[in-house]
Structure formats: structure tokens, C-alpha cells
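User: C-alpha cells for this one?
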Amino acid sequence: MRGIVLAEQASAAGLGLSSFVSVGNKLDVSSNDLLCYFERDERTSVIALYLESLGNPRKFARIARRVGARKPIVALKAGRTTAGVRVLDRTRRLRRRPTSR
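Assistant:
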């Protein structure tokens, strides 16, 4: 649902989205993978990221420096405010729950 709201708000503000990706727990796709993909995507002129965590911060910084030289990157890091910390805590609790099959 958040993705739909984001797309609607971007449209209302006159902004276009070439792509939208929600990767959940990033089991198969990392932030680094996304940066590399959007670096090559000709339809993308600005890369916007909402991040809860960085698996490999040094690698992310290295890739972001390279990609950022060609395209602007706007990155929001969750958990920097009290409300953000509460959301991350809830997400962590949900991840610890056993899944039913």
C-alpha cells in the first residue's frame, strides 16, 4: 500500500516514477544491487532510496560515490527519530516470528 500512496503523491506533485521497488527483507536483492541497476537504467535520472539498513555500508558508499557522480541519489535512512526506531523495532519483532506454512 505504501508504494501506491508514494506513486499517487509523486504524481500529484508532478513527479514521474520510472520504477518502484519494494524489496522487503532484501533476501535476494540488496540496496547495492538496486544502485547498480538504476545506474544503467536510462529512464532513471534521480535515484531515491528509503533504507532500513545497509548490509555492507562500505560497499554501499563505494557504489553510491560512483553512481552519484552520474545521477543524484536521495537516500532516507529509517530509525533516526523516535518514531522511526519504533517502526524498526516492530519490523524486527515481526521477522522473529515463525512463519506458518
